[in-house]
Every structure is written in structure tokens, then in C-alpha cells.
Q: What sequence folds into this?
């Protein structure tokens, strides 16, 4: 007779339960998904995913309002241009922490890099929807190089930078998987990846603006400027900083159980606000210089001019001042709302350049179709859901105790 | 190129240079404004010489601290945070502590609102008020192991927490510094004398130093209520 043994009080969880189902059984996990937020996300995807399939089956003509006159719509203006600008928090924060040694911002590097990675990933997915023949995408990248083309440079930069962001995010992935040696190697690559990342970002953030240098007659003169690559690069820094403020504020509400409560998230937001304030202040004057350089003052007194002034004063100068006031007076709430306003302002700017002020003088004006809008909403929803899935499993907002004392990245 | 085009060109260039100069001129004050102290400049004091006075002969009051009427002090730092602690009066009033219940990091505290609790060796506890509005960002780790540090060295190693103030300028109105501290502390000492029971004899009136745990010495049965009254946290209706 075997001696009596006592069963363990807590049965050992399976790998899938531990890593994928948040320590629950599969059925428990499925039940836990029944929340209003998930229901809304599921509803959007249930409508949007078939529409994405519809676009690939029936083509651009059947699903969009794009035309020969207006070949770029919101999939470029919102998904690609705004997505890439708002994903700039990855390179901005990684450079601040790993190159400039601003360790105070270390707690927000991982969420910023993850936001950057997903931002680029879904910008590329948006691009795939926009390209008439997406399966030909490898041709200009690998087989038929067009050296003098801005588009060629952007394609390579985005491919490389997406890879860099993916590699920068490997340490938390390996921590989640419990692979300390692989993590150690990933951490060792951090400085090199950061330097490479900031080089690539400088190149393609500005080149995305450089694309419009080819359209001086199509883009409204108030938005067209030889400085437009500089506009895109400078504004991407403000966009990245603002996005990190917004994202960290939302994360600290949504993932209360996973955050590191020792993190001074308010202090970080105030520091980022100082940076964003200075950048927006400089950006305003550089944009003003563009108006002076082009001699466009008279155009300010036209309907497009009024809209340009809304962008300049309402979405650049105003947030710059509000950030400055909020940072100086430690008003974190004001800083967070200003960051959200700035994010909106960057989206407005990218849509102005690529859609609203583009082809402003032709009768055939573009307005996005319902399918285009729904596909964009669906991509954002899938992006946010992916962010939630990762943050709920991997050490993004918190540090695992076993890695706390090692060189954490 | 016709002559007036050249003139137009010059005026355009002048405007561009003008914008550049304007930017640089405005950038300097803007930078200074943005980078300015997050804490109110009113809190900046010269640290090189920090005289420590002994108010009413009993209680230490360093000149680089701002005091709240609830007997807590705060001191501004270069990082925009303020350090908060209890003053010598509160330390001597309550005496040796067995536990100190501080708010969690990330919690909000409000000036004049109950913020932490001191528990003495006999298990009775007294609440204290926060001297500032803000968010707690750091707790003194040394207090976890030895909470009595707050009583033994209230202005040094026994600091309680660091707070990111949310409205320091407004809070500053309710804080005392300089001579006002001296006067207020003398009043507090006088108030304390008022509680001396005849039976206690000459505890301090003769010029002796106050004992640690004065409240208990004055009223062994109801010392916590007495301390709460003097620290302004006694609930209305309760007597001391």
C-alpha cells in the first residue's frame, strides 16, 4: 500500500493558462472577456474585418472614394502619416533614456516602444489596404531599387525601423517567456538599436513630409513649403511626447493592477510636457517662417487661411502655452488634456497636408467612403486590443522582481 | 529682374530675419518660464546657513522649513517635489512610535486633511494633517524598519514622504516661516502648559526639557485625545 500523500493545495497551472489565459482555465478566460469594452471592440471588428476582406476581393474602386485625381485618402493621411507621427514616442523616449541618460523616464520607455511598434505595424497594414497591388510591395524594396525616390527611402526606413522596434521590445517578451539568457542578449543590443532607431526615424519622419515636395501645385500654398520635411520631423517629436503622456495616463487607469505604483507618472508627464512645450514653440516659428518665405500672408484672409490659422494658433501655439503653464504649475490634469489636444492637432495637420489642403483647387474633391472610415476604425481597434493583450501579459508597465536589480531595459 | 522685385525680395528676407530674431528673443524667456521651478519660488530658501532655533525653549524649528498648523513641516526641493515630516512638537508630544501608517505612493493628500497615523507603543494612535495638496511619490524607506526615527530625528532622517504638490502657491498661504513659526510654536507651548495638571508638579515650568511622550505624561488615560486636539485632528465633539 502506498503511503498517503497530500495533494498540492493549488494545482499547477499549464503553460497556456499561465502565459495566455492570465492564470485562468480556457473557459474562465472566455467568460472574463465578456466586458462592455470587449463587446464594443468585437462589434467593430465584426463589421470591419469583412469590410477589409471586401476591399481585397473587390478592389479599391469598389470600396473607396479614391480616384486618379485623389489617389491618397485617409488610409494614407490618418493610418500612415498620423500613425507614424504618433508612434514617434518610441524613438523619442528611447533616445532620452538610453542616449541622454534621462533615467527618470525609464518607466515609460517600454510602453512607448510598444506603442511605437504597434503604431508602425498598423500603419503598414493601413498601407497594405491602400496599395492597389500590395503583393508587389517587396519589388521596390528588394528587387527594383529606385535610389532617387523619397518613397524608396521611406519604404526601407519603415521596414528597418519596424524591425528595430520589434527587437527593442524583445526584453519584456523574453521576460514573459522566462528566457533570461535570451533577454540578456536582447538587453545588450539596446544602445545599438536605439542609435539605429533614431537615425532611421530622423530620415523617414522627415521624408514622409518630403513626399509632398513633389506636389507644389496640388498642395495649398499655406501648407506647401520647402521646409515641409522639417515640419514633419519637428512635429513628430511633439506628437510622440504627447502620445506617451496620453497613453501612460490611460494605461494607469486601465491597467491599475499591473502598474508599478512606485512610478511617479505625474512627474514624468510634467517633464514630457516641458519638452513638448518647447518643441511646439519652435515648430510654430518654423511654420511661420514658411509662410514668410513663401510670401503667403495674403492667403491667411481666405477660408483656407482661416483653417490654417486654426491649426497654427489652436493646435500648435495654444498647446505649447498650455503645456508650459501646466508644467510650471504642476497641473497634471491640464497637461494630459493638452497632450490629447496635441495628438488631435497632429492628426489634423497630417490630414490637412494629405487630404484637406491637397487638390484644393480642383472640382473633384475627395471625401472618404464609409468603408474607408470603418477600415481605419477597425485597424485602430485591433491595435488597441493588441496593446491590451500584450500589457496584460508581459512586463510593460511594471518590472518583474527577478529582473529589477539587473540592467533593466 | 526688375528693380522693384529686388526690393520685394529684401522686404521678404527682412521679415524672415525678423521672425528668426523674434523667435530667439521670445525663446529665452519662454525657456526660463517652462524650466522654472515647479515648486513655488516662495519655498526657495538659502540652504547654506540654516539656523535652528528653539522656540519657547523647547521645540526645534529649522529656518529652512515651512510649518503647517497641524505640526507638519515641508521643504521644497530642486526636483519639484516637497519633503514632508512632523515637527519637533508633534514628535515630543506623541513620543516613541511603534507604527507609522503613511499614505501609499500615488495617493493624493490635501492640505489640512488627515494624511498619516502615528501609533504609539500602547497601541493608541493619533492622526496628523498634510501640510500640502499633491500626490505622494516617495515614502521614507527607513521608517518601515524603524518608525521611531520620525520621532527621534523629525527634521533629518525621520522625514516621512515626498509629495508632488499640485497647488503649492495656494498652499503657501497656510504655511508659516520665519518669525511666525517662532510665535506660533510659543503659542503651542503655552497651549500645552494649559493642560498641565496641578498633580504633575513642575514638569517643565522650571525650565526643564520636555519628555518624549508629553501627552501621555500629562494625561495617561486620554493622551491620544489630547494629542489629537493639539495636532488639530480631534473629531468634533470629542473632548481632550
A:
Amino acid at each position: 500500500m502506498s503511503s498517503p500523500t497530500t495533494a498540492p493545495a493549488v494545482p499547477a497551472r499549464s503553460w497556456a493558462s499561465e502565459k495566455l489565459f492570465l492564470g485562468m482555465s480556457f473557459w474562465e478566460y472566455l467568460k472574463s472577456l465578456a466586458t462592455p469594452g470587449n463587446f464594443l471592440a468585437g462589434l467593430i471588428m465584426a463589421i470591419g474585418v469583412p469590410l477589409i476582406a471586401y476591399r481585397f476581393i473587390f478592389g479599391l474602386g469598389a470600396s473607396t472614394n479614391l480616384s486618379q485625381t485623389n489617389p491618397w485618402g485617409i488610409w494614407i493621411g490618418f493610418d500612415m502619416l498620423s500613425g507614424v507621427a504618433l508612434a514617434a514616442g518610441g524613438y523619442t523616449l528611447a533616445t532620452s533614456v538610453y542616449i541622454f541618460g534621462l533615467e527618470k523616464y525609464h518607466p515609460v520607455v517600454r510602453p512607448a516602444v510598444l506603442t511605437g511598434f504597434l503604431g508602425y505595424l498598423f500603419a503598414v497594414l493601413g498601407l497594405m489596404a491602400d496599395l492597389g497591388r500590395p503583393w508587389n510591395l517587396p519589388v521596390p524594396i528588394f528587387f527594383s531599387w529606385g535610389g532617387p525616390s523619397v518613397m524608396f527611402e521611406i519604404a526601407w526606413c519603415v521596414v528597418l525601423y519596424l524591425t528595430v522596434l520589434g527587437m527593442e521590445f524583445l526584453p519584456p517578451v523574453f521576460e514573459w517567456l522566462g528566457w533570461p539568457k535570451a533577454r540578456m542578449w536582447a538587453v545588450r543590443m539596446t544602445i545599438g538599436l536605439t542609435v539605429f532607431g533614431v537615425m532611421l526615424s530622423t530620415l523617414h519622419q522627415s521624408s514622409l513630409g518630403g513626399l509632398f515636395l513633389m506636389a507644389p501645385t496640388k498642395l495649398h500654398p499655406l501648407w506647401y513649403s520647402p521646409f515641409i520635411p522639417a515640419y514633419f520631423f519637428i512635429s513628430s517629436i511633439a506628437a510622440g511626447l504627447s502620445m506617451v503622456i496620453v497613453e501612460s495616463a490611460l494605461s494607469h487607469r486601465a491597467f491599475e493592477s499591473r502598474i508599478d505604483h512606485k512610478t511617479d507618472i505625474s512627474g514624468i508627464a510634467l517633464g514630457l510636457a516641458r519638452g513638448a512645450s518647447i518643441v511646439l514653440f519652435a515648430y510654430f516659428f518654423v511654420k511661420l517662417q514658411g509662410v514668410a518665405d513663401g510670401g503667403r500672408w495674403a492667403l491667411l484672409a481666405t477660408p483656407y487661411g482661416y483653417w490654417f490659422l486654426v491649426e497654427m494658433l489652436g493646435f500648435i501655439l495654444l498647446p505649447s502655452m498650455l503645456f508650459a503653464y501646466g508644467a510650471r504649475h504642476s497641473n497634471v490634469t491640464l497637461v494630459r488634456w493638452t497632450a490629447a489636444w496635441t495628438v488631435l492637432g497632429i492628426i489634423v495637420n497630417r490630414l490637412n497636408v494629405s487630404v484637406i489642403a491637397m487638390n484644393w483647387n480642383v472640382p473633384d474633391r475627395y471625401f472618404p467612403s464609409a468603408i474607408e472610415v470603418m477600415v481605419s476604425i477597425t485597424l485602430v481597434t485591433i491595435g488597441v486590443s493588441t496593446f491590451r493583450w500584450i500589457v496584460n501579459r508581459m512586463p510593460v508597465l511594471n518590472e518583474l522582481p527577478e529582473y529589477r536589480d539587473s540592467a533593466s531595459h | 529682374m526688375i528693380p522693384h522685385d529686388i526690393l520685394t525680395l529684401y522686404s521678404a528676407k527682412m521679415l524672415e530675419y525678423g521672425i528668426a530674431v523674434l523667435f530667439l528673443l521670445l525663446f529665452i524667456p519662454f525657456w526660463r518660464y517652462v524650466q522654472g521651478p515647479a515648486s513655488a519660488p516662495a519655498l526657495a530658501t538659502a540652504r547654506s546657513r540654516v539656523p535652528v532655533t528653539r522656540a519657547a525653549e523647547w521645540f526645534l524649528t529649522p529656518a529652512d522649513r515651512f510649518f503647517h498648523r497641524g505640526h507638519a513641516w515641508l521643504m521644497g526641493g530642486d526636483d519639484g517635489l516637497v519633503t514632508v515630516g512632523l515637527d519637533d512638537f508633534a514628535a515630543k508630544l506623541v513620543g516613541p512610535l511603534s507604527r507609522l501608517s503613511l499614505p501609499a505612493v500615488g495617493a493624493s493628500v490635501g492640505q489640512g486633511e488627515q494624511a498619516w497615523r502615528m501609533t504609539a507603543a500602547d497601541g493608541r494612535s493619533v492622526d496628523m494633517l498634510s501640510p500640502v495638496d499633491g500626490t505622494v511619490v516617495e515614502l521614507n524607506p527607513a521608517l518601515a524598519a524603524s518608525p521611531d526615527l520620525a520621532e527621534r530625528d523629525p527634521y533629518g532622517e525621520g522625514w516621512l514622504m515626498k509629495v508632488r504638490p499640485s497647488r503649492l502657491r495656494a498652499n503657501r498661504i497656510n504655511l508659516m516661516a520665519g518669525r511666525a513659526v517662532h510665535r506660533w510654536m510659543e503659542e503651542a507651548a503655552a497651549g500645552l502648559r494649559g493642560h498641565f495638571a496641578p498633580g504633575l508638579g513642575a514638569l517643565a515650568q522650571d525650565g526643564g526639557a520636555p519628555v518624549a511622550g508629553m501627552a501621555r505624561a500629562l494625561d495617561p488615560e486620554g493622551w491620544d485625545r489630547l494629542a489629537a486636539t493639539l495636532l488639530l485632528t480631534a473629531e468634533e465633539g470629542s473632548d481632550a
